[in-house]
Amino acid sequence: MSESATTSTTSERGSASFTISDVTVNFGGIVALSEVTIDVAPNQVLGVIGPNGAGKTTLFNVACGFVQPNTGTLTWRGQELNRLRPHQLAGLGIGRTLQGLGLFDRMTVLENVLVGADRHAKAGFFAGLLGLSRSASEERRLRERAMEALKELDVAEYATQLPPSLPYPIRKRVAMARALVSDPDLLLLDEPASGLSGKEMAEMGELIRGLAQRMSVMLVEHHMDLVMSVCDRIAVLDFGKVIARGAPDEIREDPAVLSAYLGNEVHHVPEQAQAGS
Amino acid sequence: MQQFVTTALSGLTQGMIFAAFALALVLIWRSTRIVNFAQAPMAMITVYIALVIIDAGYSYWIGFAAALISGLLLGAVVERVAIRPVENKPHVNAVILTLGLFIVIHALAAVIFGSRYRSFPAPFGLSGFQVGDFTIALTGFGIFSILAVVVVMLLLVLLFRFTNVGLMMRASAFNQEVARLLGVRVSRMLTQGWALAALVGSLSGLLIAGGNLVHPSFMDSVVVFGFVAAVLGGLDSPIGAVVGGLILGISLSFVSGYIGSELVALAALLILMVVLLLRPGGLFSHTAERRV
Fold it and tell me: Judging by beta carbons within 10 Å of its beta carbon (0-12, 13-18, 19+), is residue B67 exposed, middle or buried?
């Protein structure tokens, strides 16, 4: 997978590509991101990695619309996203999960997923009060879709339970189901591997690979194993800048990446570092 | 025995009304963390709107419906115009704003409707039923009050549990950021929450006014009792608000019936203190689960 493959697809208008270009974010005097350019091609899994404090979370928040960049643009299928509010992104087919999962503790698993189910939700209030917001069959269809998403992630049996009573890996799957139920074309995942055991992480990796059949995925992650095994392409952030990008194999051998991860003093002995990884 | 039944029944009626008002406070609190002190004068204004319509010769029910609808609209307008600009500021700003609204709406009502006492009609009888030898304290209007509050509560349960709008409103109340992320139009949900709350507040105003005298501050004591009821229930829980309202209404009725009506306000304070000492989060709080 090379640079040219992505550029050829991004040029097609309407293709499901997501571009963050020249994005700079300052918090007070601190530059969190500096001229970051990243793009995700259709059906591609892009991983963003970097040491702690590299700007991964800021980048994710920019992609989600929670942080407005000082300069630079976000483009999705040829449409500029900068002016859009976070709730509008869901309607454009962008699904997201958060590191903290953000499940509603006092709503059942099924209800949690239902909130994400209707990305074109036009919640007419007065009609809703009278129970006319949508036909019973449509309401049932939404429920079915939510159940399907839970089934896909093997958590359908927990549908009626409240999230706080469930183990973390199950909650994680519920959060994934909630992001997937709206059938997004682009999925943004924040630290999908955090808190998972080795086996669970392998399952998560398989799941993400499977998703790439029907959508593009951008994941922010510091767990190298997952990123290396799952991603088509990887962008490495350090001190708010992209210091490397390419296929996993290229990244593994990139001296700049090794020095960012292992410290400057070892930048001339990459062979050892590689053998150790 | 008769006095006991009488006291309990009038407490029940009173409690349902407190419950409705507490529910109005809770609906707003749980979605915005604001105690809406302006709820009382907002309800008062809508009661005056009903009174004007009824005095103009229309039926009680037209006035009743007009008050509820204007409550709904007033709630939405107050949220949009007054609360929205301070939404992202510290919550205390909004609370002080609602206190300001309290004063403004009061003054406006006095200017528009005058500050004299006016009597408000009731659609049902105001004298107790005769059972054998004694009169039961439950009046026709009292039964109507209880039923009206019960119906509104059931409708709210249906709305929140079984409709998509209700689901979105709950999601917005629990976690605005995540709800936004999932495509919920949170600010619209907040407006709707205020509208609903003001409607329920109007209902409690109409029920208090029925067969009584109204004037610009006739709801003022209710905001105190409604607030106590809401805090009893944990401020976060609609069911808690209802139970809190009932506990408060019935207890205060006994205090007033057996000890003395001058001690009612003191008793409310005492109940509040005892509950907060024993269960600081209120009777139905979920604060332990909440990670803020």
Answer: buried
User: Is residue B72 within 8 Å of B79, Cβ to Cβ?
Assistant: no
pLDDT 10s per residue in chain B (292 long)?
A: 778 888 888 889 889 999 999 999 998 988 888 889 999 999 999 999 999 999 999 999 999 999 999 999 999 999 999 988 888 788 888 889 999 999 999 999 999 998 889 989 888 877 777 777 767 777 888 889 999 999 988 888 888 888 888 888 888 888 888 888 888 888 888 898 999 999 999 999 999 998 888 999 888 888 889 999 998 888 888 888 899 999 999 999 999 888 888 888 889 889 888 888 888 777 776 544 444 3
Cβ within 8 Å of residue A201, ≥6 positions away = A193, A223, A225, A226
* A97, A115, A180, A187: best to mutate for the B interface, most B CBs within 10 A: A115
Backbone angles phi, psi at A103, to 5 degrees: -75, 150
**Which two structure tokens, joined as six digits, stand for A169?**
């890996």
Report whether A75 contacts B148 (CB < 8 A): no
Pairing of strands A18-27, A30-40: antiparallel
Token pair for residue B191? 């407006």
Q: Is the dihedral of CA A167, A168, A171, A176 positive or negative?
A: negative
Rounded Cα distance, B252 and B248, in Å = 6
Rg (CA), chain B: 19
Domains and CATH numbers, chain A: 3-93+184-276 (3.40.50.300), 107-183 (no CATH)
Pair of tokens at residue A150:
């839970």
Residue B61 one-letter amino acid = W
Say which of B164, B171, B174 has its CB closest to residue A139. Answer: B164
Q: What's the number of CA atoms in the CB half-sphere (13 Å) around residue A182? A: 30
Give, to the nearest 10 degrees, the angle between helix B140-162 and helix B2-32.
30
For A39, what's the count of Cα atoms within 13 Å in the CB-facing half-sphere?
23
CA-to-CA distance for A221 and A56, rounded, in angstroms?
8
Measured CA to CA, the distance from residue B234 to residue B29 in angstroms comes to: 11
Mutation site, B154, B163, B182, interface A, largest A CB count within 10 A: B182
Phi-psi region of B131 (alpha: psi -120 to 50; beta: other; left: phi over 0): beta
Q: Which amino acid is at A185?
A: D
**Structure tokens of B205?**
């105003």
Scanning A120-139 for CB atoms below 8 A from B yields: 121, 123-125, 128-129, 131, 133-134, 139
Please check whether residue A108 is in contact with residue A165, taking contact to mean a CB–CB distance below 8 angstroms.
no
Cβ burial B220-252 (10 Å sphere, 16+ → b, else e)? eebbebbbbbbbbbbbbbbbbbbbbbbbbbbbb
What are the distances in angstroms from CA B108 to CA A82, A161, B102?
43, 50, 10
Task: Flag if A128 and B166 touch (Cβ within 8 Å).
Answer: yes
Do residues A34 and A241 lie in contact, with contact meaning Cβ atoms separated by under 8 Å? yes
Residue bearing tokens 């924040």: A190
Per domain, the residue ranges of chain B are 2-219
CA B46 to chain centre: 13
Report whether B242 contacts B13 (CB < 8 A). Answer: no
